[in-house]
Each structure stands twice: as C-alpha cells, then as structure tokens.
Hints:
- By secondary structure, this protein is an alpha+beta fold.
- The chain is built from 5 helices and 14 strands.
- The strands form 3 sheets. It has a 6-stranded antiparallel sheet with strand order 9-14-10-11-12-13, with helices on one face.
Amino acid sequence: xxxxxxxxxxxxxxxxxxxxxxxxxxxxxxxxxxxxxxxxxxxxxxxxxxxxxxxxxxxxxxxxxxxxxxxxxxxxxxxxxxxxxxxxxxxxxxxxxxxxxxxxxxxxxxxxxxxxxxxxxxxxxxxxxxxxxxxxxxxxxxxxxxxxxxxxxxxxxxxxxxxxxxxxxxxxxxxxxxxxxxxxxxxxxxxxxxxxxxxxxxxxxxxxxxxxxxxxxxxxxxxx
Length: 224
C-alpha cells in the first residue's frame, strides 16, 4: 500500500531527510527497521527509514538524490513498504561461474579525492575504474559506503570470497594469497587488498610490510 504526502527537505547536521508527517507505527502498522521504495517527484530510490522514536520516522536523502530535486516545501512524496532492499547484484551480467576476470595480478589504484578506499579495493579486484566501482556500489560519496556494499559489489562481479571476515586480534597471521584486509585508521578505518605478499594500500602505496597490530580482520578472496 502506498503512502503519500507533500514535504520539503530537512537539514540535520551534515545529513538531509524528509520527515514523514504521520505516525508510521499507527498508520502503517510497522515498527523497527523499515525498508521502503520511495518516489520524490519523479526520482525513485530504496532506503531504510530512520527511526526517531514513538512512531516518528525520517526518509534519508543522499547527495545524489538531492542533486535531482528542487528545494521546495511542496515536494510530492510517496513510499511503499517492501520486504527488503533490492541488492545491487540483481542485474549483474556476472556470477561465480562466470566472474568478471580471473585474479592473477593486481593493478594498484590510489584512492581518488572524491572516493574512498572501499571503492578502490573493489576496483583493484575487479580490474575496473573507480568510477565504475562507485556506480556498481551505488555510492557516490565517502559516507555512502560500507563493508556490506563492498561484499555486494564483489558478488556483482562474480568474485568468490569467504563468508565472513576473520579477526586477527592484532596477531601476526599468514594471509591467504589474496584477501581484503580491514585495518585501523582515522577517521573511518582502512580497507586494502593483499595479494601475493604485497599490501595494496589505496591510501598510500603498494607496501611490502604492514604493522600487524593495526590489522583488525581479513576476508579471503578465492582465486583458484
């Protein structure tokens, strides 16, 4: 069932929202984390509503969406509750039997100013441009990325990987030939690709050694 109303954009800190003007708990008979399909004017997207307590929710608006909207107070908004967000793998031309490539080398990519290391790691593993990785990951800013999006992007490209990250607890470990390493860094942490005894650190350069005490976890990338 679709729900509709008119509203404007609400700025809160460095984020932008649309406030839903009714109690979602009572009107939609839904509580907790709610996934929705949204149409603002003629711009459609999916997201999870942001709860503010007592049935009050906000629709989060990314910078990509903001650029497509006029800043008016009478934007037509319509949303419909869905079971879950569509995965970015939905229309992938690749799969685990037919991946984008066989990983037998890594071409180093340094993080561009408008992206982050998460994008660069996916680009290096898939051997695509950072712009292509950002498009597939549906994230155009540093604030829109997450490890879960990295994993979805790997699935999109048919790149096989372990089911989860293994925590090293700062200990020295023998990494598999290829993996993604999650390390401590300010402000948001660091992801880098490890391949054939080299650390492809998108924040710096290719490194032959890295402080194990700064490594949090790793996830194997299967290349055989």
